[in-house]
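Entries read chain and fold; for instance:
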Amino acid sequence: MRYVKYILVLLVFVYSCKKGNDIQQQIDTFLGFQAPKNFPQPIYNLANNPVTKDGFELGRKLFYDVRLSRNNTISCGSCHIQSSAFTQHGHDVSHGIEDRLGTRNSPPIMNLAWNKAFMWGGGVFDLDLQPITPITAHEEMDESLENVLNKLRSATAYKEKFKAAFGSEEITTARFMKALSQFMIMCISSNSKYDKVMRKESNAAFTTLELEGYEIFKDKCGSCHKEPLFTDGEFRNNGLAPNPINDKGLYGSTLLSTDKYKFKVPSLRNLKYTAPFMHDGRFLNLDAVFQHYTNEVQATENLDPLLNKNGTRGIAINSDEKSKLLAFLNTLNDEEFINNKLLAEQ
């Protein structure tokens, strides 16, 4: 019996060492930002902030550091969890410090280098500035940027990491933001079955059901959820009934009446991991999403014309088409992204 226990302990030790070595190997062979072959050119200005091994590691440490919040209890990673494609699974809206409730669902951190605007309601057009919003929001981290920087300046380990990443120990707002961006733009989801089929890798091919679903998708969903990112990056009103707080989306940033009830079009990648759905997490599953588009689209102000053709609201999808669409959407799930140890807290 003792011998068996010894073998089990030894196997666990060997596995742990191998797991650690695999992670270290990924770090040692760090290649920086690599755009997938089937993706367009990134929008993020990499020339102003090239991704380096030290910069990425600093950004990853910051991303998972609770010191970014006022009471040192939550990090970026608290609301953006890797196993949920960097969303906050199980919550309709985000939960911040002291369990304060936000007003919107935590959006996934995924393929941000190809985003031209951020957050459900817009207002931020530069990824290097985006973290200011959650850090300073009362219902999220409720901290000031200066306090965050002072906390980091008091930590010897951070002085060393900023020096390695940027050449000196000086911890500034710009360097702090750029380090976070270096981590976030490396959160690339591009290894789903769909991607491998598009890149003709490993003889990947759609099944008949998936292929039929793909054709339906291109006909009925592809105008807003454009390949290969599966979003057009625009803000649209998809006919949701206004929620109890009457969130008006993009209008809150622009104050243009034509922007009322417009929200950012989300990517359809990794739907297996990112429920609940919509800007306020009102739909718990994809069945509810289909129900909305087929039967519940409201004639709200600025309803997208694509959802109101010839006086008919919504998208006609029968049960057979739904099954095929779901089969195709499942090809967009990227387990390699979900399990990428390089993106996990170290």
